[in-house]
């Protein structure tokens, strides 16, 4: 997995300086806790990379916005974990599990406010344009999470709807983080847009790849249980494509498979994979993934900066799209 | 109850223009719903009044900040109602009751972001100082809510702790709203502070009065069930004072009374009132309320503006502190 030690170090150093109040401990301990869980810190790195790309001297001005993005991401994890009833996050108990739902709701709220507080430490003339991107992105992330929950209740979800959901839920924050860096560097709206589009398309491609690896990944290197999405009846790009293309007979088979859990149907993963294979679903999903990856690279190439200064972003994209895990 | 029709009209007109997206409806319908429940809109009025006091021509510049404060207040109601498991708000089902907890968490989050979005529509040179007050206030409100929940679990809470909790949970938002108006009017930090202090002290006095009226209010005019706090074993200023002053024997009686609900002890309210009377608790609480009221008036009087321009704030304070409901 991508990790550029220069950026990580800057973020880690700044996080160490963070000094939340001691009291009320039920409000601030959960924030210390979630921020201490070693995430990959991809999103705050993107803010720094966006600034460095256009004006390396502005990178230090981007640290607060970088932290704001990390806070926002962790706020959304705390609240999403309540909604998804998730027991673990990064291998540790989630906030609502370790404390309770009320603590998780309220400390999440406080972390969102803390994100805005950090953002306001940016150079004063950049605060208004940064907030515009941040607010838009934050609302879209909420919309994506709501759509994701809505889709779980719906029997029919189209491919277009699914891709739009993952764009909102996960990808706009990558694009927004990069754009915020670009804003701090003082580049043109056109360049901001190119960099934003790079991030959003890369994010969609990454999410599609995640769906694919969940079924076809190497169990040795894939972080999660291979086949986990199938066992959880998750609506992934593979599932949605299959439902769209399956014959009436196979739709029947699919419906039946969904009602059985692994105890009743030990071959659930294998049977689903057989259906996927019959309709060439993996190829179709890979095609989609590659389409979004290609657009991401095109956008990055179109940015009028020396190739060398774009290298770390190319490295990031390569690392994300060629991971086996 | 205080209601100045000029300010209300401005706020109502602006709320009517609000245009949340149609989709996802589970995210935005709850926001349309909670904002349509006719609240008193005291807080957004305070923003307008704060601006008008120092520079009447800036009142129109304060409308966005005024809406931001109303959004923030409603966000906190949505989330607090989940935490308090409250079925009703303003006589209608709460958001988590009408939809579900997940919808309430996420639509609350979206409304907080919308509050920031509104705030950012303020005159650009005021955005940074407005955000500073808004962020500080928002965090304090979270702290107050956490303390309130913590106190429910604790056996001992001091008067000082209780007053600090109500200051954070309810009063700083009144002070903050007024200060935000003052910032938009462009007045000095000293004047901002005086107006802020007026709001905070008035808020504390109002909350103490609420505790008193809950036991001694006129059932005909008090909006809630008289004695409701006693029946719910709520830690109010009266309860905390009693616990502090009661003899060992009466403490025993009190502890016993707390374990009984109304079915087991139909005289619960009367017995508690007898204990309050024995230790002269109502007078002590009224003394505290009047102390904070007096400070509020002093602060307002100290603001170097013509008496006439302060009239609407005096009217507000009088209306709040002499209500029978």
Automatic annotation (TrEMBL), chains A, B:
<comment type="similarity">
    <text>Belongs to the FPP/GGPP synthase family.</text>
</comment>
<keyword id="KW-0479">Metal-binding</keyword>
<dbReference type="GO" id="GO:0046872">
    <property type="term" value="F:metal ion binding"/>
</dbReference>
<dbReference type="GO" id="GO:0004659">
    <property type="term" value="F:prenyltransferase activity"/>
</dbReference>
<dbReference type="InterPro" id="IPR008949">
    <property type="entry name" value="Isoprenoid_synthase_dom_sf"/>
</dbReference>
<protein>
    <submittedName>
        <fullName>Geranylgeranyl diphosphate synthase, type II</fullName>
    </submittedName>
</protein>
<dbReference type="InterPro" id="IPR000092">
    <property type="entry name" value="Polyprenyl_synt"/>
</dbReference>
<dbReference type="InterPro" id="IPR033749">
    <property type="entry name" value="Polyprenyl_synt_CS"/>
</dbReference>
<dbReference type="GO" id="GO:0008299">
    <property type="term" value="P:isoprenoid biosynthetic process"/>
</dbReference>
<dbReference type="Pfam" id="PF00348">
    <property type="entry name" value="polyprenyl_synt"/>
</dbReference>
<keyword id="KW-0808">Transferase</keyword>
<keyword id="KW-0460">Magnesium</keyword>
